[in-house]
Design goal:
- Keywords: Membrane, Transmembrane, Transmembrane helix.
- The chain is an all-alpha fold.
- The protein has one domain.
- The chain starts with a helix and ends in a 16-residue tail after the last helix.
- The mean pLDDT is 83.
Length: 133
C-alpha cells in the first residue's frame, strides 16, 4: 500500500501541474483548451479509482474520502445529464461544471492524499516536554 500511496500522490501532482501549465497556455493559444480538458479527465479518473481503492483498503481519512467520492459521483451524474441536454444550462453554469467543480474536487482530494502520505508527526504535547520539573 505504501508504494500505491506514493505513486498515486506523484501521479496526481504531475497531472495537476501539467493541467495548470496548459491552463496558463490557453491565454496564448486556444488549442490548449483540449489538453486542459484531457488532463482534468485523467486526474478525475485517477482520483476516483484511488478513492475507491483507499476507501476499501484503508481507514485513514475514510469519512473525507467517502465525502469526496459521493460529491464526485453526484457531479458526474449532473455532468452526464447536462451533456445529454436533459438540463439546459447557461454559459456561467457550464464554466462552473467544466472547470470550477473539477478543479475544486481535484485539489480537495490532492490535499487528502497529501495528508494521507505525509501525516503531521508533531506531538501536541506540553511546551518543552523534554524538560522535567
Amino acid at each position: 500500500m505504501k508504494i500505491f500511496k506514493k505513486i498515486d500522490f506523484f501521479a496526481q501532482l504531475l497531472l495537476l501541474i501539467t493541467a495548470a501549465i496548459f491552463a496558463c497556455l490557453i491565454t496564448i493559444d486556444d488549442e490548449y483548451f483540449f489538453f486542459v480538458l484531457l488532463a482534468q479527465f485523467l486526474i478525475g479518473c485517477l482520483q476516483y479509482f484511488s478513492c475507491l481503492v483507499t476507501i476499501i483498503t484503508s481507514t485513514t481519512l475514510r469519512n473525507a474520502k467517502v465525502t469526496h467520492l459521493t460529491i464526485a459521483t453526484v457531479y458526474l451524474i449532473f455532468l452526464l445529464l447536462g451533456s445529454s441536454q436533459v438540463i439546459a444550462v447557461s454559459d456561467l453554469v457550464e464554466i462552473i461544471y467544466t472547470f470550477v467543480a473539477p478543479w475544486a474536487l481535484a485539489i480537495y482530494y490532492f490535499i487528502l492524499t497529501w495528508i494521507f502520505n505525509f501525516p503531521n508527526n508533531r506531538h501536541n504535547g506540553s511546551f518543552l516536554r523534554h524538560i522535567s520539573f
